[in-house]
Amino acid sequence: MMLTTENNSSHPVSFILLGIPGLEKFQFWIAFPLCAMYAVAVIGNITVLHIIRTDHTLHEPMYLFLAMLAITDLVLSTSTQPKMLAILWFHAHDIEYHACLIQVFFIHVFSSVESGVLMAMALDRYVAICFPLRHSTILTPSVVAKLGAIVMIRGVLWVSPFCIMISRMPFCPNKVIPQSYCEHMAVLKLVCADTRVNRAYGLFVAFSVVGFDVIVIGISYAMILRAVLRLPSGEARLKAFGTCASHLCVILALYIPALFTFLTHRFGHQVPRVVHIMFANVYLLVPPMLNPIIYAVRTKQIRDRVTQGCCGKAA
Fold first, then answer.
1. How far is CA 41 from CA 246, 264, 294, in A?
2. Rounded to 5°, angle at Cα 288 from 284 and 289
3. d(CA 215, CA 213)
């Protein structure tokens, strides 16, 4: 059944998400590790948010950005995982048309926000190491809030045209999406019209957002490296590198799988579909799961609070 709109374009009532094509016999069991990863992501990020909210000594730029990252990770993972688990466990393959577009919106907006928050965290590390005496006056709470608002607004403004353009285009009779969630390129392949403008805009958004953020992160860490290597004490250099190590791990956890998925979607026609789909499934789940673990291990203040909480419960 198709619905017809006033602009003579049509869209299906719903789409069919296949899950993991090629691994249908194993999907039920694959869902268990995915569910465990999602549980770790939710518990870990809520724990980080609770620690930062309740400990006023952590109301500093680094931890405020970390709280933004935790919120972003919760939204990003929750936008896909419950539906994915419903597909793998209960064969709930149908997704309503507007729900699919909402999923596209949330996935891409909060992927952009996550990249922007990592860029802001790199700037925070740069100011903290290169201008330590002026750090609190440069990155005030109001400046941190403005940076968070900017990356959020950027994500909404850049990604909204995706959904607007797709909603105005006609769809082919085929309404099967061969993966577990609605992603821009996957939905675009079902359109029965010229999609060159949409594809070009998608590339523009990807390179303008991620490209800009990566450049700023790269410049920030180049300046940090230069400043650290000038420190006279080896212990001071080691401490400075230690403050950046967790952030660098988080950056790699996001950009490496995201880059692989992005390139495979557009150019990796030789990559087996099962590999592509599995990578697409975990790429939105691994960073939200790893981020709180990395910061809990690498950041002394958070690690101490988690340890105290565990010891307190044990007592």
1. 17, 25, 12
2. 110
3. 5
What does pTM read for this prediction? 0.90
Confidence band, pLDDT 50/70/90 cuts, at residue 312: low
What lies within 8 Å, CB to CB, of 49 at 6+ separation is 67, 70, 71
Contacts 24+ apart (CB under 8 A), 203-210: 203/266, 205/108, 205/112, 205/158, 205/159, 205/162, 206/262, 208/158, 209/112, 209/115, 209/116, 209/154, 209/155, 209/158, 210/115, 210/255, 210/258
Q: What is the mean pLDDT of residues 83-91?
A: 96
Average pLDDT over the chain, rounded to whole?
88
Is the confidence at residue 8, as pLDDT, over 70?
Answer: no
Q: Quick one: pLDDT at residue 36?
A: 96
Torsion sign over Cα 129, 134, 136, 137: negative
